[in-house]
Amino acid sequence: MPERAELPGAPEPEDRVVAHVDMDCFYAACERLREPELEGEPVVVGMGYEPGDTIGAVATASYEAREFGVESAMPIEQALERLPRRAEADPEAEDAPDSDESGFYRPVDMTFYEETAAEVKAILHEAAETVREVSIDEAYLDLTPEGWDGAREAVEHLRERIREEVGVVASVGVAPNMSTAKIASDHDKPDGLVVVRPDAVSEFLAPIPVDDLHGVGPVTARTLRERGIETAGDVAEADPVELEREFGERGRELYDRARGRDDRAVEPRGRPKSLSSESALEATDDPETKRDLVRSLAADVSERARAKDALYRTIGIKVVQPPFDVNTRARSLSGPVDDHDLVEAVALDLLDEFDDAEVRKLGVRVSNLDFTAAEQATIDSWDGAGTAARGQPDQSEAADASPDEEVPTEAEQATIGGWEHGTADDGAEEDSAWHVRRGQTRLPEFAEEE
Hey, which of 126, 138, 262, 320 has its CA 20 to 30 A from 252? Predict the structure, then answer.
């Protein structure tokens, strides 16, 4: 394989642009999708609120319910004391609570929430090359190809799509790293968008309460306050040796995060279903400029596949036309391969359709990955019925595919426009569970971060 070509305009690693997308009161928002009359009302999603139930907890509370003091992971009995359940069956009954002082309670419906989350995540995977899903309602996106000038516009478009196509609301933080982006997404909820450029990180973090720093729970926060450390700015000015002595490795990490240092790259969890490489460029309709970029992207993605010992059965491209018109094309092969020249040839062939189109971003993807093949199925050995010559699609497999969709497989049913998204372990964030900051207890099976 030739050396990886330098991608035109690709920022240096220190110029990374990361977005953290966090759905606002997601379970309550899902309930409002099927019951629009709940909009603007206090909504509590949880279990244990039916008469006779003795054990239960709040999964999520809408912002209206929070005004009554109801919080996620609160015992349901306590929630009912603060916000009585509205008598929906007979609101005129003598013992019915005042409608202004009561709320709606709904049981957890994970199947529905996961279906809704899948729609949101499909949009996220269209918006960015690399997405790290960390729970049912939040994810990190690597927006480095957009650069700082294009990131805000891209995120505004992303939030608009989620609102219009799915019907729920997302708050987003954009920053140079994951930890700062997560704090930023929580900074202006609900329906917030906070962009923290590299030169503003220190100023942004300085007044943040220590409770809101990534990985700080109530015990750590109390210990810090006992030492007069109230904010991220205080942590940044503290002695890192003392912090490490008190909290071990977490103390050093706390010090670094408070200073806006976080070198973690946005990476999908588990084995990916696809690998892709994208790059934004000044909008152009010049065919050679587009072809040169696709060659570089093909070299990059095929090198990454080889580094991960991944073979692939499908090769595709992504073409974004101004402002955010996403087009995808793909071609399926009859066996898994590792062949840089084939990736480039197929990608360029698919690009021919957009020869005269103005584009602002291009991507190349390989999918239907195979990590288990003992040896590569060589292209030259494909013969007979249902096989393909080098660089040609398997016609028996692709005959019914439309021009803008690849042959569907079981692993690719949740795609939009054929641009497959990866998978992740739904649930907890990698270092600290969502409840650490607030001292709450994770609810089995349906814990949700707000």
Answer: 138
Q: Please report which helix (H) or strand (E) contains residue 344, including its range.
A: helix 340-351
CATH superfamily of 274-412: DNA polymerase, Y-family, little finger domain (3.30.1490.100)
**Superfamily for 206-258?**
5' to 3' exonuclease, C-terminal subdomain (1.10.150.20)
Per-residue pLDDT tens over the stretch 297-339: 999 999 989 988 899 999 999 999 988 888 999 999 988 999 9
Helix H or strand E segment including 337? strand 325-337
Residue that the structure tokens 């919080």 belong to:
71
Rounded (10°) CA dihedral 281, 285, 286, 292: 40
Integer Cα distance of 421 and 130 in angstroms: 9
| Catalytic residue flag (residue 138) | yes
Q: In the numeric block, which tokens belong to residue 331?
A: 């071609």
SS3 363: strand
Cβ atoms of 57 and 47 within 8 Å: the answer is yes
CA separation (Å) from 201 to 19, 178, 198, 232, 262? 14, 12, 6, 11, 12
**Whole-number pLDDT of residue 53:** 75
Task: Fold for 27-109, please state it.
Answer: MutS, DNA mismatch repair protein, domain I (3.40.1170)
**Domain boundaries of the chain, sorted by first residue:** 27-109, 206-258, 274-412
Full DSSP string of 50-106: STT----BEEEE-HHHHTTT--TT-BHHHHHHHSPBP-SS-TTSTTPPPGGG-BEEE
Candidate from 292-296, 303-307, 386-390 with smallest mean pLDDT: 386-390
Q: Is the pLDDT of residue 424 over 90?
A: no
**Closest to 254 measured CA to CA, from 265, 267, 244, 266:** 244
Counting Cα atoms < 13 Å in the Cβ hemisphere of 72 gives 26
List for the chain the helix, strand, coil content (%; round to 5). Answer: 35, 20, 40
Q: For 36-91, how does the pLDDT look when each residue is reduced to its tens digit (9 = 90+)?
A: 999 999 999 999 888 777 678 999 999 999 999 999 889 999 999 999 999 775 55
Paired sense of beta strands 170-175 and 193-195, if any? parallel
Q: Stretch 84-102: mean pLDDT, rounded?
A: 70
Residue 3, pLDDT above cutoff 70: no
Residue 59, token pair as written in the block: 């999964």
Task: Give mean pLDDT, residues 397-422.
Answer: 31
User: How far is residue 74's CA from residue 46's CA, in Å, rounded to a whole number?
Assistant: 10
Annotated active-site residue in 138, 253, 406, 448: 138
pTM above threshold 0.85: no
